[in-house]
Design goal:
about 450 residues, five-stranded mixed sheet, four-stranded antiparallel sheet, 22 strands, about 15% strand
């Protein structure tokens, strides 16, 4: 039996798959993670500190999704907050690992270069000193790495993974040739993701140029004088934030196009889901889409749960657009649903069903400032309790782009999806090559890469 540094005696720790992994790792040889890498934790925001609209990115657990870490949608912290937690930052080629909650065990590789970028206390950063970081990343997302994480976590309602346990992870020894091949796969995968993001950004730029918002500079005046009839008499809102001048200016630019409508008039359905009754074993179930699954222009199916189809009356259908209705930094994110199988929206996801414009175009539009300023205008609440309701989404002004413009934007988005799929394929090849090297040999793994690259 392999050494048991954690002194665990529960049967779950000695499942057959874990013992089989131990056998294979001992056969090929390994080192403890803390012998080849630096392992450090992140830091929670100091008491009383909150996120800012601008500033230094703060990487959260949800930004780490078994791929490349993306800071673009992360919340920001102020310079003052940064100074208090600047020791807890992440840098180029760090490997991030989530250590708390339902997303425990997600792994991300940092391939961006920022002088300042902080890390949540719900993650650890691993900086490899000996093994290529791309190889260590591929190992941690492999079945071996994920089995180790599953084995070493503790707790049920709120599972946790201690840094001490992570430091003792067994990392197999790989030859330089295999390391080079796996690194090349991972780095090329990252290149394709970068190209995918560029294609998406071009779609956004085209939309903003065509609508006349490419150089839009919002009015920063905090006060916008309106009569009672122009304000509460029309909208029923008394909060000053709703009447900021920048919202009026944005809507004026949309109206100038002469081709626009409210989303409510364009749509057959704008409705929010309800809290579903989750199920585990019934065959007549569908996936539940919640706010964390809705990213900018795409839906992430990580950590999805299922609910009984017969218990639901509202479903997400192919070509619907879904919009996230809650959460600081994530409210208002929109994505097209491009799958034939129906899904169930939870109580923070709103379905938009219409046929007037391309769903790909609509989701891009909603994610640009044209949509996001309207999100800011209409959401209600403060701090972590903000909400965006279907009735307010119905009031959004939508520019109805010419068909050829919609087609161009759709083509760019589909190209972005294709590049992302190619990137994901290369990560799968890298992961599987690592597994083959452990189970068979590095020579067999190299042949696998050759035929699947």
């Amino acid at each position: 039996m392999s050494e048991n540094l954690t002194q665990r005696i529960d049967s779950e720790y000695f499942l057959k798959k874990f013992l089989a992994d131990d056998f294979n790792l001992e056969r090929v040889g390994f080192k403890r993670l803390d012998n080849i890498a630096e392992v450090k934790g992140g830091k929670r925001l100091p008491l009383g500190e909150t996120f800012s609209n601008e500033g230094i990115p703060y990487i959260r657990a949800e930004d780490v999704k078994n791929g490349f870490v993306d800071y673009e949608n992360s919340p920001k912290i102020s310079e003052q907050t940064y100074e208090k937690i600047k020791r807890y930052k992440t840098t180029f080629n760090d490997i991030l690992l989530t250590i708390v909650g339902n997303s425990i065990g997600d792994v991300g590789l940092v391939k961006f270069r920022l002088d300042r970028c902080n890390l949540t206390e719900n993650c650890v950063r691993v900086f490899s000193k000996e093994v290529n970081p791309e190889v260590l990343f591929a190992y941690l997302i492999s079945d071996y790495g994920q089995n180790t994480i599953e084995r070493e976590k503790v707790g049920t309602a709120q599972p946790k993974l201690a840094i001490e346990r992570i430091s003792n992870f067994k990392i197999p020894k790989f030859g330089s040739n295999l390391q080079r091949e796996v690194s090349d796969l991972v780095n090329f995968s990252n290149k394709l993701i970068t190209e995918s993001k560029s294609s998406y950004q071009k779609a956004e730029q085209l939309l903003l140029q065509e609508i006349g918002l490419a150089d839009f500079t919002p009015n920063q005046e905090p006060v916008n004088v309106k009569s009672f009839q122009e304000s509460f008499g029309t909208s029923g809102r008394l909060d000053a934030e709703y009447y900021q001048a920048k919202y009026d200016e944005l809507e004026s630019e949309i109206i100038k196009t002469g081709s626009y409508s409210t989303l409510g008039k364009l749509s057959k359905l704008i409705s929010r889901g309800k809290q579903p009754l989750y199920s585990e074993n019934d065959s007549k179930v569908l996936m539940v889409i919640n706010s964390k699954h809705v990213r900018e222009n795409k839906i992430i199916f990580d950590n999805t749960r299922v609910a009984l189809e017969d218990d639901c009356t509202l479903f997400i259908e192919e070509n619907d657009v879904v919009i996230n209705g809650t959460g600081v930094g994530t409210i208002g994110r929109a994505a097209p649903y491009l799958y034939k199988t129906k899904a169930i929206p939870d109580n923070h996801v709103t379905i938009i069903r219409q046929e007037s414009v391309s769903p790909l175009y609509l989701s891009v539009y909603l994610n640009t400032i044209a949509g996001q300023y309207q999100v800011e205008k209409y959401f209600k609440g403060s701090s972590g309790q903000i909400e965006l309701y279907p009735d307010d989404i119905s009031n959004f002004l939508i520019w109805i782009a010419p068909k050829d413009v919609q087609a161009q934007i759709e083509e760019m988005i589909l190209s972005a999806f294709k590049l992302e799929n190619q990137s994901n394929h290369l990560l799968e090849v890298a992961k599987r090559a690592v597994e083959i090297a452990i189970e068979e040999s590095e020579e067999v793994a190299m042949e696998y890469i050759k035929h699947n690259n």
